[in-house]
Amino acid sequence: MEQPELESKIQKLETGLAVQEATLAGAQSTQAAAQAGMTSTFTATQTGMWAVMATGSVALLVGIFLGMASAKD
Question: Which parts of the chain span the membrane according to its record (predicted)?
Fold first, then answer.
């Protein structure tokens, strides 16, 4: 093989390697963002569930006391 042909092959290999590295970095970034999104969604769901349960519990207690107050009358 001649020198220019070898240089051309090396340059193509370097370009291919750079593309592969960029693709891997992009995939890792996408995976990290997806995982962060899933964690945020899960946290929001849990927070919402506990808020609804707390509101329901307060409403139940208020309803019980209002029922007891109206039953005395």
Answer: 48-69
